Amino acid sequence: MPLFFGQKRIAFFGLIFVLLLSACQQQESGTGKPKKMAVIVSTLNNPWFVVLAETAAAEAKALGYEAKIFDSQNNSSLEADHFENVIVSGFEAILLNPTDSDGSIVNVRKAKAAGVPVFCMDREVNASDAATSQILSDNYSGCVAIGEYFVQTLNRSGKYVEILGLVGDNNTWNRSKGFHSVVDRYPGLKMVAQQSADFDRNKAMDVMESMLQAQPDIDAVFCGNDAMALGAYQALVAAGKDKSVGVFGFDGADDVMTSIGERKIRATGLQSPQTMAKTAAQYGDAYLKGKRDFAQRVPVAVELITQQNISDYQTPAN
Questions:
Q1: Where is the Periplasmic binding protein domain (predicted)?
Q2: Crossing angle (nearest 10°) for helices 170-183 and 139-153
């Protein structure tokens, strides 16, 4: 009897071993392998993109995936290296904030060829056959609203300058075009300088300083993002012109929202990096569960924030 029961015990544990081995083999192949999503962002040197990246990673984790953030440092070559790493490392989906609307296409197509879907966040690539879906702020319409408020604030007359973002990013031109679609209709408003500062705060401060030397009597500056708006404002403070020159930004970054409440920055366009990031992660999850019919471009609304309505967007102090 003891031998008989011992044989049954051996058989029982043998069966358990076989089942565990089978489960491990399934995990290493097909649908059972570890699930991972990569979050590749243009830069983590901007707090807005930090929110975008961290929200995307957090949502992916909440959906049951491992998630890792890769910083491209606004460098297309580094972005290409990240794609190579992600594909070789077995990530199943990529949540991407591209470095360049044209330059990033080859990376997205490489992932597609490897069977890895790519979901763009905030920035787009100039192709409709590369990314699975692109979740984008409605930059043009958002800057139409800023342009209308700009015209109203300057009473249809005055000199202004524009600080552009990255010249290789569609967001730069969509924002500029939306703004000019309104402002250019008013002959009393004259743009006396336009220069890129790459969406960078320190570069924008330097650009604003140079502009002020050439054009000391401007009335306003329109900046393609909030980081540049803060840099421009710093330069205006140093020149003693922060009260006479209105600064208009775009993004809805926390620092600028605070500055609007303090009546420093005049206005911004409030994007929602959280909405775009969460949507991208959810789309990635849906794709990996079998969904294939995604809209190529999904617009996310932008809200105009001014000194008049900022209180509606701020949490009252306790």
A1: 38-291
A2: 40
The superfamily (CATH) of domain 36-136+273-299 is Response regulator (3.40.50.2300)
For 203-218, what is each residue's pLDDT tens digit? Answer: 999 999 999 999 999 9
| Residue 125, Cβ density class (10 Å: 0-12 exposed, 13-18 middle, ≥19 buried) | buried
Q: What is the pLDDT of residues 15-57, one digit of tens each?
A: 444 344 444 433 443 445 669 999 999 999 988 999 999 999 9
CA 267 vs. chain centroid, Å, equals 20
pLDDT by residue (tens digit) across 288-301?
Answer: 999 999 999 999 99
Distance CA 268, CA 148 (A): 12
Q: Give which of 11, 40, 173 is closest to 101, Cα–Cα.
A: 173
Strand order in the sheet with 220-223: 189-196, 158-164, 220-223, 246-248, 267-270, 303-306
Q: For the domain bounded by 139-272+307-312, which CATH number is listed? A: 3.40.50.2300
- When computed from its CA atoms, the radius of gyration of the chain, rounded to whole angstroms, is 25
Write down the pLDDT at residue 318: 44
